[in-house]
Amino acid sequence: MGTNQEVLFARTLEAVKKQAKEQQNCISEQQVREAFAPLDLSEEQFALVFDYLKKHKIGIDEPVDLDEYLSEEEIDYLEEYKKELSMIEEVSEGKKEAIILSAMAGEKDAQDALISLFLPQVVEVSKLYSGQGVFIEDLIGEGNVALSMGAAMLGCLEHAKEAEGMLMKMIMDAMENCINENMQETDKDQKVLARVNQVADKARELAAELHRKVTVEELAGETGMSEKTIRDAMRMSGFAIEDLEG
C-alpha cells in the first residue's frame, strides 16, 4: 500500500470498529466489505482484517462470547457482583421512561433509581474493555462513577430517548480513559526501569574494573551521563544500585 492508502486503511479500520461498537460490538461481513471497497483489498487482506476485528472482541455476523476473554479471577468477581445486582428489581419500558423523565427534572430519588437500573449494563460494557491491562473490577468502578455523574446531568437533554445513549457513552469513555491512563503509567514505569537498569549496568561494569563501588562523579565521567540522571536513577531505585555509592 502507498502512504495515502495506508492512511485510508487505518481510518477505515477505526470507522469499522466504531460502527461495530454502536452495534453491540458486532458487524456484518457485508458492512466490512462495503467499508473497505474503495481500497480494493484482496481476500488475504480481508482475512487479516476479520482476524484483527475478532481479536478486538468484535463479532462478524454474530456477537462474540465476551466471557471467553475473562480471567478466572475476573469470572469469580463477576459471579459475586452479579449476585448483588440480582436484587435490583426489573421495570417495564414505560416505568423506565418515567424514571428517566423524573431524573431529567432533577429528582434525586429518580436519579438513584436510574443508576441502579443501569448497573448491570455497566458490567456488560466492562467485558468489552477487559484484557487490556485493567482488572474488570476497576473498569466497573470507573463506569459506575461515570453513570452516577451522568444521571445528575440528564437535565441538559431534550428527550428521554437520548438518556441511554448519553449514559452509555459516558460509561465507555470512562473505561477507555482508565485503560489509556494505565497504559501511560505502564509506559512511564517501563522507561523508569530501563533508566535504572542502564545506570546499574554501567555502574557494575565500572565497579568491576575498579574493584570497588564507584561514585556518581566517576560514573558520570566514564559514561557521559549527567550526574542528575544518575542521581535520579538512584532515587527511583530506592538507592538500591549496589555498585554505586550514595
Can you put this structure into words, describing what you see?
The protein is mainly α and 246 residues long. It folds into 3 domains: 3-64; 67-181, Orthogonal Bundle (Rna Polymerase Sigma Factor, Chain: A), CATH 1.10.1740; 186-236, Arc Repressor Mutant, subunit A (Orthogonal Bundle). It is built from 10 helices and 2 strands. It has helices spanning 3-22, 29-35, 43-55, 72-85, 93-104, 108-128, 136-151, 163-210, 216-223, 227-236; strands at 26-27, 59-60. A two-stranded parallel sheet has the order 1-2. Helix 5 packs across helix 6 (108-128), helix 6 (108-128) packs across helix 8 and helix 8 crosses helix 10. The termini are far apart.
Which strand order do you get reading across the main beta sheet?
A: 1-2
Amino- and carboxy-terminal Cα gap:
54 Å
Shape estimate: extended
Helix/sheet category: mainly alpha
User: Under the CATH scheme, which class of the largest domain?
Assistant: Mainly Alpha
How many helix segments? 10
CA-based gyration radius: 26 Å
Number of strands: 2
User: What oligomeric state is this?
Assistant: single chain
Count of individual domains: 3
